[in-house]
């Protein structure tokens, strides 16, 4: 378990530091970047938020609040509180046209910065839990690496970066988006800002 949570944080930190991100869209307080490497597509959504970084961190690290701003989350319940910094959740998401509804079993690891210039981190990855086997009504999907880094911009604002490494399981949700025919990433980012502020 210690290894899983360490690798969860490390994978997100590694993804965030990768060179070669291309900016695809800029709005007033949202920027969307993509990164392609072989068959793996990652995206980063950068949001400017007018709340202190510790407030954004406490709201974003509690995934039971996620449905308030992310319409892709239908349900989200805690399966296991591994420690104060790690929780395992079961998430179900709304079905896309022509697709079965999906579910995920995810480990959410949160870390406060050790040094002032470091970000707050909330890392997410899929895990296997014997107690929650795949069920026939859902298509069990996997999150390789996702999460938030929250950088302080002073006492009353912060930059929230959301990262997601995309697998084929999540692709139907994003394909329409990255081609520009759907605004779901932007809309979700704007809802997230509204929720945090």
TrEMBL record:
Pfam families: START
Cleaved signal peptide residues: none
Annotated START domain residues: 16-166
Example of a GO MF term: lipid binding
Highest taxon in the source lineage: Eukaryota
Entry GO terms, CC: cytoplasm
Gene3D superfamilies from the UniProt entry: 3.30.530.20
InterPro entries on file: START-like_dom_sf, START_lipid-bd_dom, START_lipid_transfer
The protein, known as: ACO12 thioesterase
Organism, scientific name: Certhia familiaris (Eurasian treecreeper)
């Amino acid at each position: 378990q210690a290894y899983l949570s360490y690798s969860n944080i490390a994978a997100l930190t590694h993804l965030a530091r990768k060179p070669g991100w291309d900016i695809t869209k800029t709005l007033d307080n949202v920027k969307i970047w993509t990164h392609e490497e072989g068959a793996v597509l990652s995206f980063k959504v950068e949001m400017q938020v007018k709340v202190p970084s510790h407030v954004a961190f406490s709201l974003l690290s509690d995934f039971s609040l996620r449905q308030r701003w992310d319409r892709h989350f239908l349900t989200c319940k805690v399966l296991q509180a591994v420690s104060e910094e790690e929780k395992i959740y079961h998430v179900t998401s709304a079905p896309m046209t022509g697709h079965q509804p999906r579910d995920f079993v995810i480990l959410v690891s949160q870390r406060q910065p050790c040094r002032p210039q470091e970000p707050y981190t909330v890392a997410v990855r899929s895990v296997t839990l014997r107690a929650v086997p795949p069920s026939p009504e859902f298509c069990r999907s996997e999150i390789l690496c996702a999460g938030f880094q929250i950088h302080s911009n002073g006492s009353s604002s912060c930059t929230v970066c959301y990262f997601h490494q995309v697998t084929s399981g999540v692709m139907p949700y994003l394909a329409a988006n990255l081609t520009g025919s759907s605004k779901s990433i932007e809309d979700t980012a704007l809802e997230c800002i509204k929720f945090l502020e």
